[in-house]
Structure formats: C-alpha cells, structure tokens
C-alpha cells in the first residue's frame, strides 16, 4: 500500500451547510490515537487501546489548546470490521459550519489529512471490503433519484452482479487450467479437453453475457433520466403543460408570443423512473436575434430527446408552418398533445393524423389538467416498458465500463468458440481463454490500474 493510503484521513460525511447534525468521519491507523487527543468522555480521554469496537461514546470535542468545541457522540468501528477495513470513528456533532470547521481543524492538527473524493470507499476496495462493481454501486446509490435506481444500486451493492461475473470467471479459470495442463503434455499426445462440453460452456457464457449486455442501451437514460422535450409553435400552451406535468409554476406563462427563450429542465419521477422534462422556445420564424437563438436551441433539444411532446393549439386552425412541422415529426418518439380543448375546438385528432400519419394524438387542457395523466402514461410507455420490466426484475444495469469489458469478453469468447470448433493450437486457445478471464477480473477489480481507480472514485463525493 502506498504512503498516501497509510495516512489517516478525515472529512465531513454529511452535506456541507447548516443542519441539525453533521457527521465527521476519520479512518486510518492513527484514528484512535487522534481521537484520544481530542475527545473527552465524561470520565476523561480514553486511551487508544481502550476504545471499544461498535460502541457509542458521549463527550466533548476539544481543540489543541484544550478548549471545548462541541458536545458530540462518537461511534467506534475497529478494523478490519469497519467500512474501510481500518480503524474508523464517526463524530456526530451539531451541524454548524463553524463547529464542523473547527473540529476538522483539530483533527488535522493531530496528524490526519483531508480525504479526497471517494477515498473512504477506495480504501474499502483496496482492503477487500468491496469489489469494484460494489464500489461503483455505492456512488449509484448516493446519486439515485428514483426508486428503481435505488433498488438496482442496492442489489449491485450487495453483490448480485459481482456474483454472476465471479461465477463466469471461476468457470473460465477452470477451463484455462485444463488447457494449460494439456499444453504441458502436448509432446506425449495427451489431450484431455472435452471439446463438446467446452463448446457448450463457451456458448453458455456468450448467452449469459448477451443477457447482461441487453440492458446497455438503457444505461444512460436509466441513470441520467429520460429526456422528455415539450416543443411546438408559440402560444400553444407548452409552458402551461410543463408547469402542469412538473406540478409547480416553474415556467413563465403569458399571452405574449416568444416568452420562453431558454430551455427549462425539471426532474420528475413516474412509476419509479426518472424523467427530465424540458420546456423549449416556441418554434417559428423570427427576426429577433435572442428568440432565434432560443428556437435553434429548441430544435437541437428535440433532436436529442427520448420523447417529444409536440403541443398544438386546438382552438386555432393549423397554420402552414405548423402543418410543415407536423409533417417532419419522428412519429416513433413523438406524442402530439392537442392542447386547449377547454376552448371551442377547431382542430381534431383525425385532422392531425391526416397530416402526420401514425402519430399518437392526446387531447388535453393544460389549464384544467384534462389529459395530463394520459400524456404521462404515454411517455412512460414510450421509453421501453419491456426493457424496464427486465431491469425491475433482474435489478441490473451495466455502466459504460462494464459494457466495454463484458462486450470485449463476448467478442473474445466468439474467437475462442471458433478456435475450439477448428481444433486450434492449445497455445492459441490458452491466450483466448486468458483474455476472457482478464475481462472478467477487470470488471470486478481483481485486476486494476491506479488510473482506473482515480477515474472511478473521482465522481464520488468527499466523505464517502
């Protein structure tokens, strides 16, 4: 272990800012020694060897000058039975930014250093408390904004995905042992490889990897949210619909055309899924320079959307510009909202269907709320119910790193399968088998580089 990881570290583990309680975490070989120098229980300062594992202590945190800083409770977890695998203490104090700053200063004065982002979890990984997939799940759990995200992260944190990949690695390691053993006896003409069973194993791996990789297309929207863009001509009621869907008056609504200039974004959760709903500038030709920028931004946002809600004013006849825009819609990802149905209707769903064949049309009124629930159900269904049902059942979503590694493993398994079918040289089979194993072991972190760890843990917050 490097000198950096031999040092005792400390950081605020709760969010910065004023709160009822703040938690300061300390981890490392000098934790209990530092604690004995700054924490006084009602009976005095315990000796470093006296602190009991998994016990709470009530007392006062003191500065290096012996001045009482705050009354606090301290939890002790001795290594290796702690989150990091090292001696760890968590000081729960009052959540004043001044008090937290003073306590951290006192901890640092006694030899600890500030923790870097994700360093506590990084130490847990390096000390064998978590594998790399579980460590990544910690960050996913922290950043979860929907119930399904939380469930998937929790399942991967307890090792469900790691277990499946470890099973694959164990089988391929056994195969590698058999192939390499046969290489040793190649001159004697001994070949103990059961090619039929081995081919069945390799094909089984490819099938299981295919199942895992089937979630890869859902990884980005699942974690970042599905992009629902509200677009359409000016004064069609887009901002009113935006406010109705998100449940608050976030967008300014006026009768002046072109009020919305920028893209407004708000997250909502429906049926356990995260959606980022976006309100855009009205689509029309304009000489106003600022509005023109807004229209251009709206058009590019529509192009990146997972679902487009194209809003049409039902109380006004279709203009030539609206007619042309309807004809250019991608019906696979568009829902036309026929808004303002609380007013006398001059445009019907059938008329819109004739202009844009195959598009779904939902009559609605952003003013009264009619049709809002139908719109929400429609864009939830649009993001791929079957795939999402699989995620809800399997609780697995691969991140980009795992997609790359398992995809490489599947590709190398294809090469290995071909080699087995053609009775390739055992040395070649051994190389192909070993490369599959490397992919599996890199996925779980049995093999890693410092640069990889720096990249993964840099997205963690400080204190975790």
Map the helices and strands:
Elements: H1 3-6, E1 9-12, E2 19-27, H2 31-38, E3 39-41, E4 55-62, E5 68-77, E6 88-95, H3 97-109, E7 113-114, H4 119-126, H5 132-143, H6 147-157, H7 160-184, H8 195-213, H9 216-224, E8 226-231, H10 238-246, E9 264-270, E10 273-279, H11 289-304, E11 307-313, H12 320-327, E12 334-339, H13 349-355, E13 360-363, H14 372-382, H15 385-394, H16 400-421, H17 426-444, H18 450-457
Parallel strand pairs: 1-7, 8-10, 8-11, 11-12, 12-13
Antiparallel strand pairs: 1-2, 2-6, 3-4, 4-5, 5-6, 9-10
Helix pairs in contact: 5-6, 7-17, 8-16, 16-17
Features:
single chain, 464 residues, alpha/beta, Gyrase A, domain 2, Four Helix Bundle (Hemerythrin (Met), subunit A), Rossmann fold, 3 domains, seven-stranded mixed beta sheet, six-stranded mixed beta sheet, flat
Cα-based radius of gyration, to the nearest Å: 30 Å
Name of the CATH superfamily of the largest domain: tRNA modification GTPase MnmE domain 2
Number of domains: 3
CATH architectural grouping of the largest domain = Up-down Bundle
Number of helices in the DSSP assignment: 18
Strand content: 15-25%
The first-level CATH class name of the largest domain: Mainly Alpha
Report low-confidence residues grouped into runs of 5 or more. 256-261
- Binned, the helix content reads 40-55%
Describe the structure.
- The chain is flat and about 85 Å long.
- A hairpin with a 5-residue loop joins strand 4 (55-62) and strand 5 (68-77).
- With 464 residues, it is an alpha/beta fold.
- Helix 7 (160-184) runs antiparallel to helix 17 (426-444).
- The longest helix has 25 residues, at 160-184.
- The protein has helices at residues 3-6, 31-38, 97-109, 119-126, 132-143, 147-157, 160-184, 195-213, 216-224, 238-246, 289-304, 320-327, 349-355, 372-382, 385-394, 400-421, 426-444, 450-457, and strands at 9-12, 19-27, 39-41, 55-62, 68-77, 88-95, 113-114, 226-231, 264-270, 273-279, 307-313, 334-339, 360-363.
